[in-house]
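Section 5: illustrative case.
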């Protein structure tokens, strides 16, 4: 006898296709969630690693900033010490400067020129006195300019002598003491 299938096979095939579709859908959803979770975890790990590196760099920058501040402080101290050393050297070299100035002034004053006052203000020396002739004053100016210690002689005025001493003229002159560096170079 022939075999007749009376079961509703189309409905069974439809149910089976629907179950396969749901199974495939569930598998795709699980795979999508798993891949999203994996990507999220991967990028989260990258972000955490970068944050760790950033924190490390921030700490190192703070350490270097403190070191830079210490170096700047040391540079200030060094500059202060160097300035003190220069001042001490200058004082040491200028210790006998007053004596040297008086010795040099005695050398540049020609005969026939007499000082009534000699006054020093800083590096400037103001001289007033009497001279027998203007030639002697010009000789004195040339000697100031050729001196290793003195410079910039300027004659500020010559006044003819009064009736009692017509032979002597009154004069005012100013010249400067060379700076510490120029004196050192001239003596070498």
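Designed sequence:
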């Amino acid at each position: 006898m022939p075999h007749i299938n009376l079961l509703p096979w189309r409905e069974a095939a439809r149910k089976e296709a629907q179950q396969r579709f749901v199974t495939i859908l569930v598998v795709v959803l699980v795979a999508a969630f798993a891949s999203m979770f994996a990507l999220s975890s991967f990028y989260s790990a990258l972000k955490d690693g970068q944050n760790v590196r950033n924190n490390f760099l921030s700490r190192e920058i703070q350490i270097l900033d403190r070191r830079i501040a210490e170096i700047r402080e040391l540079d200030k101290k060094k500059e202060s010490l160097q300035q003190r050393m220069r001042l001490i050297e200058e004082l040491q070299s200028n210790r006998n400067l007053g004596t040297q100035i008086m010795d040099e002034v005695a050398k540049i004053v020609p005969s026939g020129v007499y000082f009534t006052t000699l006054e020093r203000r800083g590096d400037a020396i103001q001289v007033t006195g009497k001279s027998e002739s203007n030639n002697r004053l010009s000789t004195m100016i040339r000697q100031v300019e050729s001196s290793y210690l003195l410079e910039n002689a300027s004659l500020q005025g010559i006044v003819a002598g009064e009736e009692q001493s017509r032979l002597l003229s009154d004069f005012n002159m100013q010249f400067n003491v060379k700076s510490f560096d120029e004196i050192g170079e001239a003596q070498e």
